[in-house]
Amino acid sequence: MSTRSRLGLIGAVAAAAIAIGVGSAGVSGVASAATAAPAISPNAGTVHGCVFETDNGHYVTAVGDGGRTTDVIHTDATQIGAWEKFTLVRADAGLLDDHYGILTGSGHYLTAVSGGGRTTDVIHSDATQLQSWEDFTLVPLGDGVYNIKTYNGHYLTAVDGGGLTTDAIHSDATRPSSWELFFISCGH
Fold this sequence. Notes:
By secondary structure, this protein is mainly beta. Helix content is 9%, strand content 32%. It has a single domain (35-185), classed as Trefoil (Acidic Fibroblast Growth Factor, subunit A). It has one helix at residues 3-19; strands at residues 46-53, 59-62, 73-77, 86-90, 99-103, 109-112, 123-127, 136-142, 145-149, 155-158, 169-173, 182-185. The longest helix is centred in the N-terminal third of the chain and has 17 residues, at 3-19. Mean pLDDT is 83; it is low at 7-36.
């Protein structure tokens, strides 16, 4: 189910719940079976087992589990494996609620090359320290859906909504649209 469809479904369920008097407490956790794990809780420090689902239902993969500067990210996974799980590490010693480093299973951070704004050589996964180019802002849109903003204010894009092994991610979007939507769930 695409993120856009999920948002529509969640909105419809919320409207129905409110109409019958359940209220918003009765609609928490609405998601597909594959992504039923909770989203990021506010003020979380380190969050393990996080997956990033693209608009068309594919998962972001750190090729080789990280440690790379070429062939770094794919968006064609249809199931969650080890390479699709990331750890979110709060940036700036936890002072900024929505700033995170994205750590691969091998212990490397994703880097937005040049801080973002690129369509080639976009992401590396070989950083061992969380610095400015490894600092991503997770912009919550509700119900586990996020935009991911780079250090210099650009948005990560899953090209074609996901499903690619080459040219899978760009970081040059200045305004978010459907390809910039990611459903993030953790605890996998």
